[in-house]
Amino acid sequence: MTQSLIFHGNSELLEGPIFDTKNNCLYFVSIFDYLVYFYNPQTKEILSIKLDSPVSCIYIQEHKKIIVATKNGFFEIDFNTLKKKSVFKIDIDDNVRFNDGIKDPNGRYIIGTMGYPDVKKNIGQVFSYDMGQYKTIIENTTISNGLAFSLDNKWLYFIDTPTKKVAKYAYDLNTGDVQFDSYIIEFLGDGVPDGMCIDNNGMLWIAEWGGACVSQWNPVDGNKIQQLELPCTNVTSCCFDNEANLYVTTAMSASANDIYGGGLYYLELNKK
C-alpha cells in the first residue's frame, strides 16, 4: 500500500468523501468551515464553495454538479459556474444537524442527524426523502453515521457511532422502508466506527474515529479482515475510486503530535 496526503487545509473536520465514477472526480466537505470541495485527480485541481451553515453530505447529480446537505437545507452546487441554489428542505430541530447520508438505487435521499452544537443521546434520526416527501426510517440515534447498501441492495448497513456497532436493516426498494435485522459488527478497541463504504466484493471498509485506521470487515460473519493505519487519530470516512483505491478523510484531535489530522489521504491499494 502507498499512502499519500493529497490535501490539508487546516480543517477541524473533513468528512463525506464521495467519488464520481462516471467523471472520475472526488467531492468532500469541511463540516464546520461550511465548505464543499471538488477534486480532479488528473489535473490536481481543487475547487471549493462556502455555504451558510455546517455541511455534511454530498449527492452526485452530474459532472461537477451535486446536492449538498447543510443545517439550513439542501443546496444544488454547480462547480462549472461556482453557483449554488436551494432545492429542498427537511425540517429538523434547532439542536440537531445533518450528518452522513447516501442515495438509494431508486434515487431517494437518505440522511441521518445528530445533536448540534452538543451531542445528545437518542435525539437523532434517519430520514428518507423522495419526490418532495420525507419520512423517518430509523429513530432514536445519537450520532447517525456510515450508511452502505449491500451489493444486491437487499440490506442497508448503518452506524450509530456510540453503539460501537454496525446494524443491518432489510431494505424495501419499492417503499424505502427498513426493518432492523441484527447487529453484524462490534468494535472492541479504542476506535469507534464513523463513515464507511463497501467494496466490489461486498466487504465493508470503516473509518475509525480514535482508532487511527480504516478497517475492512466481512458483514456476513462479522470478522475483521485487515486494518490500514493512518498518521492521525480521528479517521472520519472513506470511498473508493475507479481503481479500487481509497480516499480517506480525517479530523483534528487534541494530541499535539497529530499534525496531519484534518487532511485528505489517498491509499493506493492497487497499483496501476
UniProtKB/TrEMBL annotation:
SUPFAM superfamilies: Calcium-dependent phosphotriesterase (SSF63829). GO terms for biological process: L-ascorbic acid biosynthetic process. Pfam families: SGL. A divalent metal cation binds at E15, N145, D194. It comes from the Bacteria. One of its GO terms (molecular function) is gluconolactonase activity. Substrate binds at R97, N99. Binds 1 divalent metal cation per subunit. Keywords: Metal-binding, Zinc. Its cofactor is Zn(2+). Residues 15-251 form the SMP-30/Gluconolactonase/LRE-like region domain. The active site is at D194. InterPro entries: 6-blade_b-propeller_TolB-like, SGL, SMP-30. Belongs to the SMP-30/CGR1 family. This is Sugar lactone lactonase YvrE. It comes from Maribacter litoralis.
